[in-house]
Design brief:
Elements: H1 2-28, E1 35-40, E2 55-63, E3 66-75, H2 92-105, H3 108-115, H4 128-145
Antiparallel strand pairs: 1-2, 2-3
Length: 147
């Protein structure tokens, strides 16, 4: 009798857990229109060391409810593109950090395409501020794509 109660309780707990997991997956499912959408993050201000000011823009393409391409570009607060000259006014050490962040942030788009969800994309060390900008810009673009 005691064994039967334990088995029934375990079965009920498993059923509840599966039910809850299914609910959370259903809540996250959103349908998107095919097309190309752009998104922009808010402008972030630099920290006490002068790191991380600017914003990011993304362009995503959706086909059959999946993200098939994504680009991410970062800008200084005044709209200047962060490119190979970004950080040239900094000390050598900070310029290298700035360039590492710019280079790493370009990988976020392909990571999104391979993972399929911005929640599955991990931050890259040295480009965590860009990561926050990326997430915000993607979410902005996806809002525009919702059916």
């Amino acid at each position: 009798m005691k064994k039967r109660i334990i088995i029934i309780c375990a079965a009920l707990i498993s059923a509840v857990m599966l039910s809850l997991a299914g609910c959370s997956q259903q809540e996250k499912q959103t349908d998107y229109k095919d097309g190309v959408y752009t998104g922009k993050s808010s402008v972030h201000q630099s920290d006490e060391d002068g790191n991380g000011s600017g914003y990011g823009e993304t362009e995503i393409e959706i086909k059959n409810n999946k993200i098939v391409s994504c680009t991410f570009t970062t800008y200084e607060p005044d709209g200047t593109l962060k490119d190979e000259s970004y950080g040239s006014e900094f000390s050598k050490e900070n310029r290298l950090k700035a360039q590492k962040a710019v280079q790493a942030s370009t990988k976020y788009g392909s990571m999104l395409v391979s993972k399929g969800s911005v929640d599955e994309v991990d931050a890259i060390s040295g480009a965590t501020i860009s990561y926050e900008e990326f997430k915000e810009a993607v979410e902005d673009a996806l809002k525009k794509a919702e059916k």
